[in-house]
Amino acid sequence: METEMNISIDGYNICYRITGDGPETVVMLQGWGTELAVYDSVAAIFAGDNRYRFVQFDFPGFGGSDEPKEGWNVDAYADFFCKLMQKLGIAKATLIGHSYGGRVIIKLASRDSIPFEIDRIVLIDSAGIVPEKTAIQKLKIKRYKFLKKFLNYKLIHALFPEIIDDWNSRQGSADYRNATPVMRKCLVMAVNEDLRELMPKIKQETLLIWGDRDTATPIGDAKIMEEKIPHAGLVVLEGTGHFSFLEKPAVFRNVMKNYFQIV
Questions:
Q1: Where is the signal peptide (predicted)?
Q2: Tens digits of per-residue pLDDT, 90-141?
């Protein structure tokens, strides 16, 4: 059974989908800029087992859900998720997080109190580690900030509007360039917050699944998480990048079936 619906949380229209009606709930927390359908192949792994109910949804500003009225940090998204779980009446669940979704899970699992119980955790190519910047990177950031401040003076912009607008449009990552102004604020707050100090507080058994060619969240991040999360184990999908679960679906499916004991 698969049901796709909408729900209102704090006035925001949220898209979500439920597959199956088993007693054990698994919730998928998506990566930045994706929509819930990207994780249909993950839902399909659980669909044939009547023990599970699989929940997918779009965070505010993702997919078909309404955008936040202002920039949200990761804690605000974690607060929203708590309200979603309460609205859906979910008291206990296993959480699976890809990329940005992993950030939210780390925040939730490290809190002293949340209104539901986390059973187990699966982090797929998860974000949460801010890499140390090299001297060259620091110099580039300093130069970028100077140029941005200079080029956006009203007088300079009035003299060369097309050139400056073109320069602005080419700055930042693809995710940043493709985002709306509000979502850009959300992204900037997320990528500048290092969560490694929260990881030792995670009490749940945690499975890390990673692509060894991931350039967005490198395999080194996975090894830091494996070291810092007390009950963590790492599975590496060789030859895959940031969407490892889509790049080697058969291998990913076998890992998940073994972990969740799905026949």
A1: none
A2: 999 999 999 999 999 999 999 999 999 999 999 999 999 998 655 554 455 4
**Do 20 and 93 belong together in one domain?**
yes
Helix (H) or strand (E) holding 29, with range, is: strand 24-29
Q: Angle 136-187-215 (CA atoms, 0-180°, nearest 5)?
A: 50
Strand order in the sheet with 52-57: 2-9, 12-19, 52-57, 24-29, 92-98, 117-124, 206-211, 232-237
Range with lowest mean pLDDT among 14-18, 67-71, 139-143, 183-187: 139-143
Tally of helices (H runs) and strands (E runs) in the chain: 11, 8
214 domain-assigned: yes
Within this chain, do residues 157 and 201 fall inside the same structural domain, yes or no?
A: no
Residue 94 has which token pair?
């296993």
Domain membership of residue 159 as a residue range: 135-182
pTM of the entire predicted model: 0.85
Both 52 and 118 in one domain: the answer is yes
